[in-house]
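agent> fetching stored inputs for the phenylalanine docking request
agent> found them:
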Amino acid sequence: KEHIAEVEKFTSTSIEEIEAFRIKYLGKKGLLNSFFAEFKNVPNEQKKDFGKVVNQLKDAATDKVNALKETLESQTETVGKYGDLTRPGEPVEIGSRHPINIVKNQIIDIFSRIGFNVSEGPEIEDDWHNFTALNLPEYHPARDMQDTFFIQTDPDILLRTHTSSVQVRYMESNKPPIRTISPGRVYRNEAISARSHCFFHQVEGLYVDKNVSFADLKQTLQYFTSEMFGKSKIRLRPSYFPFTEPSAEVDVYWGLETETDYRMTKGTGWLEIMGCGMVDPNVLKNCGIDPDVYSGFAFGMGIDRIALLLHQISDIRLLSENDVRFLEQFKSAL
Ligand code: PHE
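agent> prediction call returned; pasting tokens
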């Protein structure tokens, strides 16, 4: 009876162990045969009970061996079919974000903290959204400021030269107050060099509400540049854009005075990082917003240039060559 309990407890997934178990109980010189040999010495009145228990032990041992072998076989079959499912997985290589996306996400994050949402629009635009609505009617000389790629021969369909086109779309379908930034890829028919490409990326911003002033614009830019570049000085230089009046270029001081900030070593003095201005009343009118009630400011910056500065990348073309040796340098746990 003790042997029966032992047999029932036994388990194994090793073919050798199961075979050893079989030999121990069911082999030629196994326990069962020795019990059967013993049978003739058992007193007659106990023969019946003894025989019963020995037969139970034989059945238990046979069943056990069969059951364990069956499990083992079906496991071997699974491994053959699917491989060993209990093996630990192979580690997957972690990819990296593209530096353009890293910088774009930083910019989005900074503006979202002061209530700006994100808006997007098509890269293939019509003349109205890229030019005319922005106070750049046909034959306006300032259209040449941005050399344009047209789609085939239709002068009305083009690759957007800036994401100001998204701002037009946004104003057409939303009422003030408006606070939105528009990140995206833009195209200009320019010679490709270390400093400029025929496509690049922008984030443009738009704020429209009652009583928006130039002081609001300046304060917003100061907030942005210090979040983006660390403690930094900016300066606004008068400039011209057809869609803003007055207009300015924003320079950030990238120099020795701020060398304590790790993001701004390698001083190069004043660096132009964006254009901005108060939205021209004509633009508001074109987009269905009453300029007598509302005013606004807009700004636009190139993501690629900022990525080159922040990550000390020497050539803008590296950003679109997709060389893995370059891209994998931006791996981060975040
Ligand atoms: N759209 C301008 C450009 O692409 C940038 C800009 C945006 C300037 C908004 C002023 C206001 O160069």
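agent> quick read of the result: The two ends are 64 Å apart (CA to CA).
agent> awaiting further instructions
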